[in-house]
Specification:
Layout lengths: L1 H26 L4 E4 L2 E6 L4 E2 L4 E10 L4 E8 L6 E5 L4 E3 L8 E5 L2 E7 L1 E10 L9 E13 L3 E14 L11 H11 L6
């Protein structure tokens, strides 16, 4: 009987520890969020952020088969993804860019958007006045979207990545080549005037 009571206390302790660990993980910075029918990832290729640097970040959406997100001009219905940046002083983000969409007919309606995967490139500029308070720079943003099939599901997430902060350009800047190549692939699909 006494062993059962100890086991119950031990089980409760394990559950409390698991909840605390989950809460810490929830507050930790996340570059990827899995939501219903879509996975959203923040892509920041440079390993270090330094004054005078310019680079292109990206917002990647991977949808389940049959689901889609919308272009900047959604068509008859829908809403495009948005990101509200939270950046260190001295770093600015340009407008999110939208690769050429595909037609998404639904009965008599015509929408425009993306199925499968899409990356929205975002030009970033680090000003000459960028002076990191510490040795890190947090690139973060609040993302909203609408993912649809026959029905639409709104989604939102806070995404963030931490990069090293330098006072000047490193001798050999390091980048995440996979993220950079993926962003470049979708930059090549941007509509031309």
């Amino acid at each position: 009987m006494r062993l059962c009571a100890h086991f119950r206390h031990f089980s409760v302790l394990l559950i409390v520890l698991a909840l605390v660990a989950a809460a810490r993980g929830e507050s930790a910075q996340r570059g990827t969020v899995k939501a219903p029918h879509v996975t959203v990832t923040l892509l920041v290729p440079p390993a270090e952020i330094y004054p005078g640097e310019s680079f292109t970040a990206g917002l990647q959406f991977q949808m389940e088969p049959g689901w889609h997100v919308y272009w900047q001009n959604a068509g008859d219905s829908g809403e495009p993804p948005t990101i509200d940046w939270k950046l260190p002083q001295g770093i600015t983000a340009g407008a999110m860019q939208f690769p050429a969409p595909k037609r998404l007919p639904l009965g008599p309606l015509m929408d425009f958007g993306y199925e499968g995967q899409v990356v929205f490139p975002v030009p970033m500029q680090v000003g000459a006045e960028f002076s990191p308070a510490g040795k890190q720079a947090d690139i973060a943003g609040h993302v909203t979207w609408l993912v649809c099939r026959e029905v639409c599901i709104p989604g939102k997430a806070d995404l963030a990545l931490t990069r090293a902060a330098a006072e000047s350009k490193p001798a050999a800047p390091q980048v995440d080549a996979t993220a950079q190549a993926l962003i470049a692939q979708y930059e090549a699909k941007l509509p031309k005037p």
